[in-house]
Design brief:
Layout lengths: L1 E3 L3 E5 L10 E5 L32 E3 L2
Antiparallel strand pairs: 1-4, 2-3
Length: 64
C-alpha cells in the first residue's frame, strides 16, 4: 500500500471493542498538547488562512 497524504496521518481502532477494522485519517492540523502554554500562532501543526482564501486538501490511497 502506498499513501500520499496530509502532514499528519493517524491509524486507530476503537479500544477494547475487538473491532474488525483500522481507520486511516489524514489531518492538516491538530489541537494543542495538554501542557502547551505558548501563543496559539506558535503551536505545532497549526494553520492560518487569509480572509477570503479557500483551503483545499486531499489525499490518495493506493492499495496493491
Amino acid at each position: 500500500m502506498r499513501v500520499r497524504t496530509a502532514p499528519i496521518s493517524v491509524l486507530w481502532s476503537p479500544p477494547k471493542k475487538n473491532a474488525p477494522f483500522v481507520c486511516i485519517e489524514s489531518w492538516y492540523g491538530r489541537c494543542d498538547s495538554i501542557n502547551y502554554k505558548g501563543e496559539w500562532k506558535k503551536r505545532k501543526w497549526g494553520n492560518r488562512f487569509e480572509a477570503g482564501k479557500i483551503f483545499k486538501g486531499g489525499y490518495d490511497i493506493e492499495a496493491f
